[in-house]
Design brief:
The protein is mainly β. Strands 13, 14, 16, 17, 18, 19, 20 and 21 form an 8-stranded mixed sheet that branches. The longest helix has 8 residues. It is globular and about 65 Å long. Helix content is 3%, strand content 39%. The chain has 2 helices and 22 strands. It has 2 domains: 248 residues, Jelly Rolls, CATH 2.60.120.260; 110 residues, no CATH class.
Length: 372
């Protein structure tokens, strides 16, 4: 017997990957699972989610195991106020956000008469009840358009599911680039520069007064008793919220590594040595990144005898005085590999072009960042 699927159910909203966000269930946290004393903008814990702040309290940020019961989530993102700011200056703000590449938005058909509706759903919890704002921001270089929608946390310290649906914009497309073209902001506090207007800007507009972007938002920073949790964040095509799209950890991790990768406990293959006191090694990234990443390291140059160290082995350990991370010389803008150049003026290789290995301990990190 053949079971037929009704044609009205055969759509991108039901089949295929639905969630435009990455790591909406906060599974992946390559950088850290907690960060204390945060006051400014940065990626601190769970991958792809950025904390954005300007003089709006001090915050501990963590991947929490406090989750809505029975929904299949293991983690949430938690913001915890540790130093309050009960009187925000005009330009102060507190935002949590993710940016989405333009190449992942073309099926929304923005800028045409067929522009798709979008539905955002998420689970949220806070000690502070009241009105919060989510803003959708089309970052087109030809002309920015944005709109904001409000939601309410009704009961303190209680998980609540929120659903917001917005119309597609028939006038302005998302550019087909690897830049952040759709930015989604969760406003958690805002001074009068962003909240002092008369009415919230709740439809796609280009001529938007800044003070209408977050009208009515609470000040989550006004007490050290305040916190904010979120998980199960999904943005999908259509007017209805479908169940959260649970991916395997491997799938979610692979998506995150397009934007950020870090490595420890590794070795790199040699390319060449030169000048008898320098060596170059090729490090191939696990996954091609969004753009040529910035490269850095965390740890100490020296012997491999310590887990914090890296070193070079020829016929014995060679102490490194410096390393430089750069794209491979034959290809600018390389998104697949990096060259490690090492210098150790007090030691020399036995001869030019000798094969050696570059090794790093478990606590020595190579860091590659191509975040939006």
């Amino acid at each position: 017997m053949t079971t037929k699927v009704p044609s009205e159910l055969v759509s991108d909203q039901v089949f295929g990957r639905r969630n435009l966000f990455i790591n909406g269930d906060m599974q992946v946290a390559q950088r850290a699972t907690s960060a204390t004393g945060q006051t400014g903008t940065g990626f601190h814990t769970v991958d792809r989610w950025e904390f954005v702040a300007s003089s709006a309290g001090t915050w501990d940020i963590s991947r929490s195991t406090t989750v809505p019961s029975g929904e299949g989530f293991a983690y949430s993102q938690k913001l915890d106020c540790t130093t309050a700011d009960s009187s925000l200056d005009a330009g102060n703000y507190l935002i949590w956000r993710q940016k989405i590449e333009g190449i992942n938005l073309q099926h929304l058909k923005y800028g045409t008469s067929s522009a798709e509706k979008l539905t955002l759903s998420f689970w949220v919890r806070s000690a502070k009840t009241g009105t919060y704002i989510v803003e959708f921001y089309n970052n087109n270089s030809a002309g920015i358009k944005l709109q904001s929608q409000s939601y309410t946390i009704s009961s303190a310290d209680t998980w609540e599911k929120k659903t917001i649906t917005i119309d597609g914009d028939t006038a302005l497309a998302f550019q087909n680039t690897t830049d952040g073209e759709l930015l989604v902001y969760w406003w958690l506090a805002a001074g009068s520069t962003y909240s002092g207007g008369g009415s919230l800007n709740n439809s796609w507009n280009s001529s938007v007064a800044n003070n209408t972007r977050a009208v009515g938002v609470v000040n989550l920073a006004d007490s050290t008793s305040n916190d904010w949790y979120i998980t199960g964040v999904q943005l999908e095509v259509g007017a209805d919220a479908t169940p959260f799209e649970h991916l395997t950890f491997d799938e979610q991790s692979s998506l995150c590594k397009r934007y950020y990768q870090q490595y420890s406990g590794f070795h790199a293959m040699p390319m060449w040595t030169y000048g008898r006191s320098n060596g170059s090694f090729q490090f191939v990234l696990e996954k091609e990144m969004r753009s040529q990443p910035s490269a850095s390291y965390s740890g100490t140059l020296g012997s491999l005898n310590n887990a914090n160290y890296c070193g070079i082995y020829e016929t014995d350990w060679v102490t490194i005085s410096s390393i430089t991370l750069s794209p491979t010389s034959h290809e600018s803008g390389n998104t697949k590999m990096i060259r490690i150049d090492s210098a150790h003026p007090t030691n020399t290789f036995a001869s030019n072009n000798v094969a050696v290995g570059f090794y790093a301990g478990d606590n020595f990190l190579l860091i590659f960042d191509a975040e939006l």
